[in-house]
Amino acid sequence: MSSETKQILTTDGIPLEISLKKAERKNKIKAFLLVAPLLLFLIITYIFPIGEMFTRSIDDKMITNMLPKTFKSMETWDGKELPPEEVFASFLTDFKVLVDNKEHGKLAQRLNKEKNGFNTITKKLFRQVKRNKIDETQSIKEQIMKVHKRWRNVEYWQAIKRTAPPYTSAKYLKAMDMYLNEDNKITQVSEDRRIHRILWLRTVEVAFFVTVFCFLMGYPIAHLLATLPMKYSNLLMICVLLPFWTSLLVRTASWMILLQQQGVVNDFFVMIGLVADDNRPEMMYNKVGTYVAMTQILLPFMVLPLYSVMKTISPSLMRAGKSLGGTPFVAFWKVYFPLTIPGIGAGCLLVFILAIGYYITPALVGGASGTLISNQIAYHMKTTLDWSFASAMGLMLLGGVLVIYWLYNKLVGVDNIKLG
Amino acid sequence: MALPKYTETRYRIWHYFYIAICTFVFIFLIAPLFVIFPLSFNAEEFLVFSEGMKNLDPDAFSLRWYKDMVYGTKNPWGLAAKNSFIIAIFATLGSVILGTVAALGLSSRHMPFKGIIMATLISPMIVPLIISGVAIFFFMAKAGLAATHTGIVLAHIILGTPFVVITVTATLSGFDHSVTRAAASLGSNPVNTFMKVTLPLILPGVISGGLFAFVTSFDEVVVVLFLAGLENTTIPIQMWTGLREQLSPTILAVATCLIVLSTLILISAELLRRRSERLRGINR
């Protein structure tokens, strides 16, 4: 039948199929044009800069551009013994350009990061160059080697060679408390200097326990809200929604007042005789403060998804479970609980993702033992100005969040995000 | 939540235990907000309840911190409040316009690459704020917009649009597209149809998205910390500085005002949600 039917034509004489396709394409373009302004805006101001964070974090072009001739002549040097005359000569040429541009200090700083001791010998070389002490008609190698004994040490030339590639993974290794040693092997920094790994672990630990606390506290009240008659539950819902809408800093401030040594919580503990008046425990500027404040601040994000799932579970299911001989506990565990798992997944991952990137609350109530990786990122952005290191740590954190988010999407589905 | 008479003792105990836990959690959630309230009326400079306050002595209460907030010398709060409102209003307008238009496109069934585009549009909500802050700072520094109001407004538009996109797409999901076709068949052009038919129907979603965007901007501190100069200080920045340096009762007065504001926002958001559900024909 199909092969013999005449093509259906529109009134213009164009086959219907083509005409429909045309209309379809037009609609597609129309829809896309509506999204385009926002998409373009976000790509330029947001997605692209995140990409820039990546190039920044691996960028090591500065030194590559500073010593172009040196690195070129080093290509043929095997790196086992002192480099030949030619390398010394091109190094001197590069160095003179740097001295003219007053950039030799930057070079010394960068090389010193690669190997300690460069600062001194670069300064010495600078003085010689400045006084025109180096005679280019004679062996430059001999003269540079005379400037300082370290210039005679092959390890320093090897260090220069290591800085040649325009890209480096050093910042990522540093964030894991590791570095590349002389033989290009990944090595751990000495034990007393491993600060970043502690921070990563602490971040995950805090996020995990905050999620657990939020779940333990959120589940019962979400259940109560979902099962109470509407007029009561609406009233109680305010207890969840008001903190949700209240400024983060206001809530953090109130915890600072509650948890201080003369604060309400301590007063209460003294009143019921839990602690002695002269021995009030420190509850702020440590992990306890971080846990308590973050749990309260993130709790609404757990309750709301749980509530929206529990609301859809018919109460007759529990009744059926009980009437079939299950005790209330069995009926709850076998019937009700499995039905709430999508809500649990949504709530837990939402809280975990929010907690892992937390900055403000830990910075205010965390003290030294309560700071997290975000605080370290902010510290390098604002204080040490090591932006490439901050970018590297930020991207590592982002990678972690994306993995979690991908899992969340697989297990629960993004569409389950609900607001209020 | 009365229990039936035949309930066994152990379930009775369990039930009261459950009620006790719930009560504790509700207190845990809401009580911190109420601590601020009385302390902001403290006549003294300390952030603890004085003996006078515990005995409800009227002399122990005063409005001095509110006066300090408004009239205090070298007072940063006036400028901060002005900046906060200006930035939040423009950021909300920007987010609402860009977000609503994008949501209209996204809800069309003709939209190509829907999944990936949606993921891009809501990404600022998923990416931890500190990372967004770093990325936005790099852009603004390059564009020469660091430490300007424009820069902060743009940054807050980035952070606010995902909320508008999500709420408006949700409203549009229950939207009956035949009404726009009806309008078109009656000779209305697309812009007219949008203004007269679509917009009034999705307005609750648009406004509640706008409320989210407003609160996000008004409460945002991480990105502003990277971007703001002295001239662009906002209320959250002032609170942040105050909380880091010295907790003064003036901050509590400001906090009380903010709680009142968030209560108003909560009420309007709730009313809007109900209206939106009624318009979409959802009766629960």
Short description:
The complex is a heterodimer of chains A (420) and B (284). By secondary structure, chain A is an all-alpha fold.
What do these coordinates show?
The complex is a heterodimer of chains A (420) and B (284). Chain A folds into 3 domains: 8-59, no CATH class; 61-166, no CATH class; 197-416, Orthogonal Bundle (MetI-like fold). Helix content of chain A is 69%, strand content 1%. Chain A has 20 helices and 2 strands. Chain A has helices spanning 16-58, 61-66, 68-74, 85-100, 104-114, 118-130, 140-147, 154-162, 170-175, 196-227, 230-245, 248-259, 264-271, 287-310, 315-323, 328-339, 341-356, 360-365, 373-382, 387-411, and strands at 178-180, 186-188. In chain A, strands 1-2 form a two-stranded antiparallel sheet. The longest helix of chain A is centred in the N-terminal third of the chain and has 43 residues, at 16-58. By secondary structure, chain B is an all-alpha fold. Chain B has a domain at 82-279: MetI-like fold, CATH 1.10.3720.10. In chain B, 75% of the residues lie in helices and 0% in strands. Chain B has helices at residues 9-39, 51-54, 64-71, 77-107, 114-126, 129-143, 149-173, 178-185, 190-219, 222-227, 235-245, 249-279. In chain B, α1 crosses α12 and α4 (77-107) packs across α9 (190-219). Classes of the chains: A mainly alpha (420), B mainly alpha (284). Chains A and B meet through α1, α10, α11, α12 and α14 of A and α1, α4, α5, α6 and α7 of B.
